[in-house]
Amino acid sequence: MGASSPPPDRDRGSAGPRIAGRRIAGIGWPLATKANVLVLTLALLLGFAISAQVRQTRTQGLETLREDELLGVLDTVTQEGVRLGAELRDLERTRDRLASGADSELEAIDIARERADTLGLLAGSKAATGPGVRLTIADPDGRVGATVILDAIEELRDAGAEVLQVGPQRVVMGTFFSDSDAGVSVSGTALSPPYVILAIGDPATMASAMGIPGGVSESVRGLRGEVTVEQLDSLDITAIHRSDPPRFATPAPTPDPSPTS
Amino acid sequence: MIPALGLLAGIVIGILVRPDVPLWLQPYLPIAVIAALDAVFGAVRAALDGIFDDKVFVVSFLSNVVVAAFIVYLGDQLGVGAQLSTGVIVVLGVRIFSNVASIRRHLFSA
Amino acid sequence: MTLLTEMLQRPLDPGYAAAASRRLAAGEPAHTPVGTALVTLTAVLIGLVFAVAASAVRREAPRQAAVRLDVIAQVEQRRALVEERSRAISERQGEIAALEARILGAGGGGQIQAELDALALASGAMPVQGPGLGISLADRPGEPQAEEGGIDQGRIQSRDLFIVVNALWESGAEAIAINGQRLTVRSPIRFAGSAILVNFRPLTPPYEVSAIGDPARLPGRFAATLGASYLKSLSDNFGIVTSIEAAPELTLPGATRVNVDRARPLGGAS
């Protein structure tokens, strides 16, 4: 409100450098005058307010989400809870079979085989069969890059894809995508368009996931490519990934209690 | 003194009655509040300056509200309602602050 | 400038001064009964406007806030349930593994046990430890910017995360977890609005990507990937806070989603 307050004393402004210097020294000197204490209190309050505001904007959790986004998160977490509940019941049944079975050794071998099958499918060491989709990404202009393929893989995983193959390459945990001169490379193997992705899982869910607004199909169309999705009752994924055992990641003795994130 | 009591009475009535504000009126409510505040502080300052005038007060309040509402309405029709609302609030806000500064000088001579 | 000066220096309605001087000139009294009544009426009106506006705002805000808080509470509750079930699943898996080891170890099943361990290691089902790299990403500090017409570039997108993860695999990482969520072949990194979900769990920033791999080569290889330059451009252009640090010892949990529903091994057991 400086503009509307009366002009300051004119002669004070022309007090000269010596007085100005003394005045600055006076401001710097701590004196327990009423004004100084008041200013100190105000400065403390201001500092507190600033830090509180900064902290407030730092904590960006769920509170910053819009309502529709929150509902989406709620839906996903709920489904995951239901799925984990089913998995937990399966595991408990398996444990009880093992613990109380009369033929516990045969049971154990049976269960171990089942588990080895499952882990082999995930690790990529076993060929797989099941219902799923065949995704063909046509790319006449050569503009579809690794990020688009990666996006499609993430979207398929989100839709529950269990076993995946891109071109002749099995997709495993450590599969990576990069751009090469001819097209997209999968784990260092160059592919050329059209790219064919095979995914085992629920065909309808995966097919609709590809078609969501702003999703994979739309972004590929934006690059003047085309995504075709075939839903298949049965498809085979025959590509096998042979991996060397990891050299640096060694089994941890005790399972880490998963931190809340 | 009587106008101050009137202001208080209005607030009490509003709190007790809690009238439903029709939806079309809601965008104008904040603007009306700011315009009213401006009129009130203008009146207090004028009273302290010794130049308060009944007619000017009433007319300034009504015209403030009407003009502010009109600007917002116009802005809505032109698709810049939010920006114009901000403009109105800034202008009236500056006036309120200056008037408060003047009142402060009168009351505390600070 | 004239407009501003005018506004700042003469905030009062000029009408007051004009009316006062006119009154003075005409010798009229300052207040008339009718005038006072009008003023009082206007004051009542103004008070009414204040109260109505305040109550309207207060009634609107709590209703929306309550719904939001309710949804947030539900998300937190379900998330706690998911965490609890994940922990229970890890425990059951441990129990089953122990039972099998005991039963198979006594008989002739040692070979299948070794195969199981190798597969669990390769698929991400087993908790692992080792040296590696920790990459941290945090949203641009300060207010989230208006999301009009698209996305706030200062906020980390799921795409940013999976590009970094992809680059880490490319650099030879052997195991990766994000905020304690171990990545497997079935782990999606997606978004719901502006929230990032990994393994279908909503994560809160900062995002800590932990990768186990060759401590001598992983950092250098990562620095040479496109992902590393992408990370740098995120911090240079959009203010996203990133840090890359070598970690002498990381421990990553095993993944819980290590089952399949639809896929069957082709042509029976291997």
Task: Give your account of this protein's structure.
The complex is a heterotrimer of chains A (261), B (110) and C (270). Helix content of chain A is 48%, strand content 18%. A five-stranded antiparallel beta sheet of chain A has the order 3-2-7-1-8. The longest helix of chain A is centred in the first third of the chain and has 34 residues, at 67-100. Chain A has helices at residues 10-13, 17-28, 34-58, 67-100, 104-123, 146-158, 203-211, 216-222, and strands at 128-138, 163-166, 169-171, 177-179, 184-186, 189-190, 195-200, 226-237, 250-251. By secondary structure, chain B is an all-alpha fold. Chain B contains four helices and no strands. Chain B has helices spanning 2-17, 28-49, 54-78, 81-108. The longest helix of chain B is centred in the last third of the chain and has 28 residues, at 81-108. In chain C, the strands form two sheets. Chain C has a five-stranded antiparallel beta sheet. Chain C has a three-stranded antiparallel beta sheet with strand order 4-5-6, covered by helices on one side. Chain C is elongated. Chain C starts with a helix and ends in a 5-residue tail after the last strand. In chain C, α5 runs antiparallel to α7 (226-238). Chain C has seven helices and nine strands. Chain C is α+β, with helices and mostly antiparallel strands and 270 residues long. Chain C has helices at residues 2-9, 14-26, 33-106, 110-123, 158-170, 218-223, 226-238, and strands at 128-138, 175-178, 181-182, 189-192, 195-198, 201-203, 207-212, 241-252, 264-265. Chains in contact: A-B, A-C, B-C. Chains A and C meet through α3, α4, α5, β1 and α6 of A and α1, α3, α4, β1 and α5 of C. β1 (128-138) of chain A pairs antiparallel with β9 of chain C, so a sheet runs across the interface.
